[in-house]
UniProtKB/TrEMBL annotation:
A divalent metal cation binds at residues 20-21, 112. Gene3D superfamilies: Ribonuclease H-like superfamily/Ribonuclease H. It comes from the Bacteria. Its main location: cytoplasm. The keyword NAD does not apply. Belongs to the RNase HII family. PROSITE patterns: RNASE_H_2. It catalyses: Endonucleolytic cleavage to 5'-phosphomonoester. This is Ribonuclease HII. Endonuclease that specifically degrades the RNA of RNA-DNA hybrids.
C-alpha cells in the first residue's frame, strides 16, 4: 500500500485495538506483542508497517503513538515458553497478554496476519498485511518492534559476541556462525534450526549453476 493512506478503523461500532508482534523469526530472545487503541480520527503521514520504516523513524514514532493512543500495552513470551508451545502459539499468547494489560478494554480486535485464537469475550478480525492497512496495527508493530529491539540491546551487553545489538536475534550469517562456534546462550530458542552459513552459500551456488 505504498503511497496509500492507512485507515483509522476496521469497524465503527466498537472500541477497536490493533495487535501485532515482533521477533517471530528470531533465533534468540522473546517474541513481543503490542495492542494499541487509537482515537477514531487518528492520522499520521509517516506511520506504517514497522518493517517499512528505519530504526530512527520507529524510535521517533514510538513516543508519538504512546502520547496519542487512548490506551496501549506491550507484552512478551520468552524463549523458554516459545520452545514449550511453539512460536505461533507464543505469538498469539503475547498478543493476548498485551490485550489483557490494556487499561481501556476494547470491544473489537484487529490482528495482523491470518492466525489468531479468540480472546475471551472479544470478537476479532485477522487481516493479512494489516500493519500496512490500519493505523492501530501499524502502531502496534512499531511498539512491539522498538520495545523488543531495546530489550535485545540490553541482552547484547551480557553476550556481546552474538551481535544482538545489530541483529536483534535474527538469523544473520554472523549470528548463526557464532552459535555454531560457541553454542547457545540461555536466551536462544533451542527448537529453532540453525543452518550453517557456509553450507547455505554452497547450496545457493549449486542452485545457480544448475
Amino acid at each position: 500500500m505504498k503511497g496509500q493512506t492507512l485507515l483509522a478503523r476496521y469497524q465503527h461500532h466498537l472500541l477497536e485495538a490493533g495487535c501485532d508482534e515482533a521477533g517471530r523469526g528470531c533465533l534468540a530472545g522473546p517474541v513481543f506483542a503490542a495492542a494499541v487503541i487509537l482515537p477514531p480520527d487518528f492520522h499520521h503521514p509517516a506511520l506504517n508497517d514497522s518493517k517499512q520504516l528505519d530504526e530512527d523513524t520507529r524510535n521517533q514514532l514510538r513516543p508519538e503513538i504512546e502520547k496519542t493512543a487512548l490506551a496501549f500495552a506491550v507484552a512478551c513470551v520468552d524463549n523458554v515458553e516459545i520452545d514449550e508451545i511453539n512460536i505461533l502459539n507464543a505469538s498469539i499468547l503475547a498478543m493476548h497478554r498485551a490485550v489483557e494489560k490494556l487499561l481501556l478494554p476494547p470491544g473489537f480486535l484487529i490482528i495482523d496476519g491470518n492466525r489468531f485464537k479468540k480472546y475471551p469475550s472479544i470478537d476479532h478480525a485477522c487481516i493479512v498485511k494489516g500493519d500496512s492497512k490500519y493505523f492501530s496495527i501499524a502502531a502496534a508493530s512499531v511498539l512491539a518492534k522498538t520495545y523488543r529491539d531495546d530489550y535485545m540491546k540490553q541482552l547484547a551487553e551480557e553476550y556481546p559476541e552474538y551481535h544482538w545489538h545489530q541483529n536483534k536475534g535474527y538469523p544473520t550469517k554472523k549470528h548463526r556462525s557464532v552459535i555454531l562456534e560457541k553454542g547457545f546462550t540461555p536466551y536462544h530458542r533451542l527448537t529453532f534450526r540453525v543452518s550453517d552459513p557456509l553450507l547455505d552459500a554452497l547450496a545457493d551456488s549449486s542452485a545457480t549453476i544448475s
